[in-house]
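Table S2 (continued). Query chain:
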Amino acid sequence: MIQINPEPQLFNFNKTPIIGNSVSLVNTILDCIDQITIGDYVSFGHDCKVLCGYHDMKLKGKERQDTILHKPVVIKNGVWIASDVTICPGVTIGENSVVGAGSLVLKDIPDNEFWAGVPARFIKKI
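Corresponding output:
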C-alpha cells in the first residue's frame, strides 16, 4: 500500500516518481525532471524537498536560466527524512539512514548512518 498523505507537490514532471510501500510524504516537493526513487517504509517530515534539477553556474543570464541540468535521486528502504530537509540532485540515501531536521544533503549517505547539518555531515552510525 502506498501512503502519500498529504499528496506531494510535483514539478518539472518529466519522470514519474517511483514510490515504495508505506511511504509518508508530508507536504514534500518532488522535482521530477529526473528519476526520483523512494523505497519502502520511508518517512518524510514536514516541508522537505527532493531536487533533481539545477543550473550551470558557468553559464550567464538567459542561457543559465534556460539550461536545466539534472541527476536522479535514490532514497532506499527504511529511511527517515526529518522536517525541512533539502536533498540535492544526484544523491543516494542508504537503507535505514536518518537525516536530521533542517539539513542540506549534498552527497551520498551510506546505510545505517545519521547525518545532519548545512551541509549535512556524518554524526554517527545507527
